[in-house]
Amino acid sequence: xxxxxxxxxxxxxxxxxxxxxxxxxxxxxxxxxxxxxxxxxxxxxxxxxxxxxxxxxxxxxxxxxxxxxxxxxx
Length: 74
Ligand SMILES: [Zn+2]
Known about the structure:
By secondary structure, the chain is α+β, with helices and mostly antiparallel strands. The chain contains 1 helix and 4 strands. Strand 1 (11-22) and strand 2 (25-37) form a beta hairpin.
């Protein structure tokens, strides 16, 4: 099992809400699969998830209102 970079606690599969701030515009992506430390709660994303997040952010950048909330799976 992977270990937390910060406290060496066990990482467990979880979901989290990812938040990005683009020049005062906020993008919130819900239910993003992540690894979460069972000890300190630190969240990390795998490389595939990060590139998926980047794709979603890139897509939303054009149509951005002040706050955009999307579901990762949608
Ligand atoms: Zn930790």
